[in-house]
Design a protein that fits this description.
heterotrimer; A alpha/beta; B alpha/beta; C mainly alpha; A: alpha/beta; Beta Polymerase, domain 2; two-stranded parallel ribbon; 4 helices; about 25% helix; B: alpha/beta; Rossmann fold; 4-stranded parallel sheet; 4 strands
């Protein structure tokens, strides 16, 4: 870890009670979800982490406390380092404040998290579905959402599958 | 085609109407530009100069469905795209044919999940399925030639029911 | 409410007030369009011919790859990575394998690293050739398309010789490569590298000083570096604004630090600058492949850590451990340690990252691909504001999006 990264980690640990974990040379900070915008703002303004590389989420169902982790990676061009922030979010009607004010490119990434996980972002200007059809119900990437697997048609179950399958007509 | 020897010298040829119309249809079947995913790149490769598709009459790819006869569904059809495929198929005038190019259009391919329609024949009726992921340009050409042979066997009574 | 009935009410917050009063027109540049590279839907708000806002609508190629990869083992899941950015399948494989190797701390022998560099750069050249062909086709330069596909066929023949498949090869596997390259690999690659520079000169003579091309591309779709960093754009779009940021130099992977190459940049940030950057990148890639071929070391091409890498077939007949390893790897798959990693490479479109989280089971717990096309497409409203409809086509071509990448 170089000095800037060390200073950034220390400052976030003191101000926001972040917990540090290192794995394979990468720094990951677990920040309480109430402070997500302030932590991101501190990283951008004081420690020059100018670009948000990625914002995504992980579902830990059936564990409910926390059920989701929202993961954000930031990159600093000047110091050439990547840092990861994780925000644990609880299960029913999960909500977070949006990072759009700090990093404008979080716009589509948070729309995708809303679409696929169901985590609402307060303060997001345009929270709509982005990759699924408009009228889709459910959030597909949650662990309790089924894969939607269709039975493969072999010769032994050919007629059985044919009865259930729809075929397009002229 | 039956050529009447005596009339051949006068520049007259007799044949069945079916054969003539089917020959004309296969000679210049215009595909609609409908490349969705990776198979579209192989379709473009088949259209380009190395494996030329214009020798089969498919010189142009028409962007508008109203002016094309053939829809080559190249690539995976997602659930959001399925109503679009059906609308485009409905907009094509008769006679029309559909080639399902690649594994994803034939049966869902590698992707057996909530987001991909398992075979485009759930949405439109398909005439020829071309297997491969993605099929080589020669594979697509074999599919097109198979379609031509199928069209050449079409009968008069089938036209009336369309 | 299906896609046809997206009315102004749902989009009220995105379009200007003039659309609601009817002064401007909402035009649907629909999912099936000859110039959107794939199934991209753009809602253009037009004042006459000038674009006021542009609202991209993606998701027409959503394949659910991330969820599908969670139900397959690590080796099976790699097959799906090919099909995401389908113009750069070897690059996708490489990024996924780098993530798996980082997670499991697998070693990669130097011959495998050099061959990975060669194949990744050849893939970059073929992707840029296709970009050149299709964006030339959009701007009505049809002969460029036919010439570019001619070169691309030569590179696809190399891939077929090496891996058996032209496009979706799945040749780069965790621990190295699937198998060693055949004997005629080096001669064929050198032959292609001999021909390429003259052909690239030919394309440049067709387009770079062509007054029609200059009219259609100069001053169109301008971005500056600050906007790029805010919007999260990477790759040739960022380099065309003047910032020399390339992951192959900044956070090198797979032995890129041994090779000597430049990072081409331009300063204008418009469509023409991006064109120049990509053509220059093709020439740099040729240099890298030549250096890698000259320095190609000998040795194995796959790690010998049998817990993760299957043994060669010759060993299975004679060694009991090899048989057991083969059996375990094919029925259950390997079990990596618990943790999460983020690995990134430079794809022809920008930074491609893989976030991989494992919980110790043979199937990945969460795989997220941070794809450049998804990030770059967010900039469309900023890029197209104030331009004509005909310029929108050129702008989409210049950001070089691949919808499989954007929708995953």
């Amino acid at each position: 870890m170089n000095e800037t990264l060390q200073a950034a980690v220390q400052s976030l640990q003191e101000r926001f009670q972040a917990r540090l974990s290192e794995f394979r040379g990468e720094i990951s900070l677990l920040v309480p979800p109430e402070h997500n915008v302030e932590a991101a703002q501190a990283l951008r303004d004081e420690f020059q982490f100018e670009m948000l590389l990625d914002e995504t989420a992980v579902d830990y169902w059936p564990q409910t406390e926390p059920r989701f982790h929202v993961v954000a990676h930031m990159y600093s061009f000047i110091h050439n380092t990547v840092i990861e922030l994780r925000f644990p979010v609880d299960g029913n009607a999960p909500e977070l404040r949006s990072l759009v004010t700090v990093y404008p490119n979080a716009n589509w990434k948070e729309r995708e998290i809303w679409d696929l996980f169901g985590i609402r972002f307060n303060g997001h200007p345009d929270l709509r579905r982005i990759v699924m059809p408009y009228e889709w119900e459910g959030h597909p990437l949650r662990k309790d959402y089924p894969l939607g697997y269709e039975e493969v048609q072999f010769s032994f179950n050919k007629e059985q599958v044919d009865r259930h399958k729809r075929y397009g007509k002229r | 085609m039956g050529i009447n020897q005596k009339n051949g010298e006068m520049g007259v040829v007799t044949t069945k109407l079916e054969d003539l119309v089917n020959w004309a249809r296969t000679g210049s079947m215009w595909p609609m530009l409908f490349g969705l995913a990776c198979c579209a790149i192989e379709m473009m490769g088949a259209q380009a100069s190395n494996y030329d598709l214009s020798r089969f009459g498919m010189e142009l790819n028409r962007a508008s469905p109203r002016q094309s006869d053939l829809m080559i569904v190249a690539g995976r059809v997602s659930r959001k795209m399925a109503p679009v495929v059906r609308q485009l198929y409905d907009q094509m005038p008769d006679p029309k044919w559909v080639i399902a190019m690649g594994d994803c259009a034939s049966c869902g391919g590698v992707f057996n999940n909530y987001a991909v329609v398992q075979g485009v024949d759930e949405v439109v009726p398909v005439d020829v399925y071309v297997a491969g992921c993605p099929p080589r340009p020669e594979g697509l050409i074999h599919g097109i030639v198979t379609l031509h042979e199928k069209v050449k066997k079409e009968k008069f009574k089938d036209w009336a029911s369309k | 409410m299906d896609y046809r009935s997206t009315t102004i009410d749902e989009l009220r917050h995105l379009v200007s007030e003039r659309a609601i009063s009817g002064e401007t027109v909402l035009l649907n540049m629909g999912p099936q369009h000859p110039s959107t590279h794939g199934v991209l839907r753009l809602l253009l708000e037009l004042d006459g011919e000038i674009v006021v806002t542009c609202i991209p609508d993606i998701g027409f190629l959503h394949t659910g790859v991330e969820k599908n990869m969670e139900s397959k083992t690590y080796q099976q899941a790699e097959v799906m990575t090919d099909r995401l950015d389908y113009l750069n399948p070897l690059g996708n494989n490489l990024t996924y394998c780098l993530a798996v190797e980082k997670l499991t701390e697998l070693d990669v022998p130097p011959r495998a690293q050099a061959l990975r560099v060669i194949l990744a750069e050849l893939q970059r050249i073929s992707s840029h050739l296709l970009w050149l062909g299709t964006s030339g086709l959009d701007l009505a330069a049809m002969s460029v398309f036919l010439y570019a596909m001619r070169e691309r066929e030569m590179i696809l023949d190399i891939f077929e010789m090496v891996a058996g498949q032209r496009m979706m090869t799945t040749y780069i596997r965790p621990g190295g490569l699937w198998r060693d390259v055949p004997a005629e690999f080096e001669d064929t690659v050198r032959h292609v590298l001999d021909i390429l520079p003259r052909r690239i000169d030919e394309y440049e003579s067709l387009l770079t000083t062509n007054p029609l091309f200059l009219e259609r591309t100069r001053g169109i779709g301008v971005l500056n570096t600050q906007q790029c960093m805010e919007l999260g754009l990477t790759g040739p779009v960022l380099r065309a604004t003047g910032k020399a940021y390339d992951l192959r130099k900044a956070r090198p992977y797979s032995g890129y630090e041994q090779y000597d190459f430049n990072i081409p940049t331009q300063h204008d940030g418009d469509v023409y600058a991006r064109y120049l950057v990509r053509v220059a990148e093709m020439r740099e890639s040729i240099k890298i492949v030549e250096q890698a071929l000259d320095k190609l070391p000998t040795g194995p091409v796959r790690s010998s850590n049998r817990k993760y890498v299957p043994p060669p077939r010759s060993e299975i007949g004679v060694s009991m451990e090899a048989l057991i390893h083969h059996f375990k790897l094919w029925t259950e798959g390997f079990r990596p340690p618990v943790g999460h990693v983020y690995a990134a490479t430079e794809s022809p479109r920008g930074e491609l990252g893989v976030y991989l989280e494992s919980d110790g089971s043979p199937k990945p717990y969460r795989v997220h691909m941070n794809t450049p096309s998804f990030a770059n497409l967010q900039a469309m409203p900023v890029l197209t504001k104030g331009h004509f409809v005909a310029d929108v086509v050129g702008i989409i071509g210049s950001i070089d999006i691949v919808l499989g990448d954007a929708d995953r």
